[in-house]
Amino acid sequence: MFFLGIGLLAISLALLARLRGIVARSFGRALFLFGCAGIACSGTPLNRWIYLALGSLAGACLIVCESPRTARFSRIRAMIGVLFCAAIAGVCVSEALHRVVPKIHISSSQRIYVVGDSVSAGVDSGPKHWPAILGDSTKLDVVNLAKAGATASSALRQATAIGPGHSLVLLEIGGNDILGATNPKDFRAALDALLSRLMSDGHQVVMFELPLPPFCNAYGETQRLLARKYGISMIPKTCLANVFAKKDATSDGIHLTQAGQAALAGAVEKMLAVRRSVDGGPASISP
Fold it and tell me: Out of 51, 96, 253, 279, which residue is the most buried by the measure of CB atoms under 10 Å away?
């Protein structure tokens, strides 16, 4: 929706800059509004100053497109148009980098812990959860510590169950904070404390980025900010979003069915690059 909104903005301003008919210009204005709505509702956690700058440039473009077609306004229109194009190109490249799926390098002897909520723990004993499916398919030691209803704050108790040594921790947490009563400030403090605990123990941490409802950008901003602070990799929000969107993958839009659990396990398995030792011989890498 974010990239679609950006595209609609660019198309609408190009139409308004070139066309003069009442119907065409009305269509261009409608596209402009749809583009703004798409970006606002996309839940893309850009910095608020970036949103302000992008919105200001888009508004300036709209104003000059509606201005008289004199030589003076043509120069201003061209200058603002160049600035706007440069801005949306930069924003799109920056956001695209957050959609790159990481390659997670681990050893076959390295234990994997999953810290999370009901997406990973389920809400009953029915479906086989994705951490167990991942362990079966990769022959790795995967320990599922996830608890239904967990938040970033309560996940600290899960972290205390992680044994010593250099383990891989897959962190899938925050959904209950967004849907519950945790405000963004408290979420940031709790997630910071959780990541600080995991990193101080020397673990390799990879965090699932959360698909965000409209106007909940602050939670995503916190995830990206703390990922940079601690130098940890993030699994793009498109991973969970794509699983949720699959047919029959969820029972209620959030909690995974057996098909959804298998789909998430498969998505995570594709990210793993496992270094295996073969009977004391040289290590081999399996994608």
Answer: 51
